[in-house]
Amino acid sequence: MVDLHTLSPNELSMFTLIIPTLNAEVALKETLPNFAGHKLIITDSGSEDTTLDLAIKAGATLCFGSAGRGPQLARGASLALLRGSDWLLFLHGDARLSPNWCDEVEHHISTYPNSVGYFRYGRQGDGFWPWLQRVLVALRCWAWKLPYGDQGLLISARVYEALGGYSDLPLFEDVDIMNRLKADLGRSKIRPLGAFVVTDTSAYAVQGWCKRGWRNFRLLRRFQRGESISQLTRQYYND
């Protein structure tokens, strides 16, 4: 159980951004400039493009290991904790944040030191389907307190360590940690930040917004029912 009494609003708000990558050069060219001047860890799993070059030019610290977003995030967090970070901000490589993102992160750290934060889902494109997806994401976050990993996760080092951190799951590592956060902290301690994130939705455009969204929802329900993660992973990548 997380001991909330150990946290103070006046604690030094030194946060580290942690981004998992695998051949992410296209996304990083757009996103990395937004993180200039901040502590950044790129946790890579074997990129063969210019991902590492871009990370080095951005001043990031690199760590390497096996593939899978769960293990990658866990490795990055371990390195950040060793370097003395008080707060961790986990992001996907294609996360494009609204200009006020840093102010909102600092506001959360100073105002809600015992809570975790996530970015609101921004406008992903024009038309009915991007609009509907945004509405459904907002409903999921409101009703289930279940933001996905593409919305980021801002969490204090103490809460992260007390919780046990990210698991080694190859899929649904974001749902797993949110389930444990809700169980330990309670729903009221999971808060949206006053900033937005936009991500790459090209896979939805190719596969179909409705088809891909329904596929993801069915997999989520099976995961929450405790079905085999290896079977779900095979299904995810086969699709």
Quick recap of the structure?
The protein has 239 residues and is of the alpha/beta class. Helices cover 45% and strands 18% of the residues. It is globular, with a radius of gyration of 17 Å.
How do the strands and helices of this protein lay out in sequence?
Elements: E1 15-21, H1 25-31, E2 39-44, H2 51-57, E3 61-64, H3 69-82, E4 87-90, E5 96-97, H4 101-111, E6 116-121, H5 128-144, E7 153-156, H6 157-163, H7 173-185, E8 190-198, H8 202-207, H9 209-224, H10 229-238
Parallel strand pairs: 1-2, 1-4, 2-3, 6-8
Antiparallel strand pairs: 4-7, 5-8
Description:
There is one protein chain. With 239 residues, the chain is α/β, with parallel strands linked by helices. A five-stranded mixed sheet has the order 3-2-1-4-7, sandwiched between helices. It has a three-stranded mixed sheet with strand order 5-8-6, with helices on both faces. Helix 1 links the parallel strand 1 and strand 2. Helix 9 packs antiparallel against helix 10.
Query: Which range best describes the helical content: under 10%, 10-25%, 25-40%, 40-55%, 55-70% or over 70%?
Result: 40-55%
**Beta-strand content:** 15-25%
Gyration radius (Cα, Å) is 17 Å
What is the CATH homology-level superfamily of the largest domain? Spore Coat Polysaccharide Biosynthesis Protein SpsA, Chain A
Which key terms come to mind for this protein?
three-stranded mixed β-sheet, Spore Coat Polysaccharide Biosynthesis Protein SpsA, Chain A, five-stranded mixed β-sheet, alpha/beta, 239 residues, 45% helix
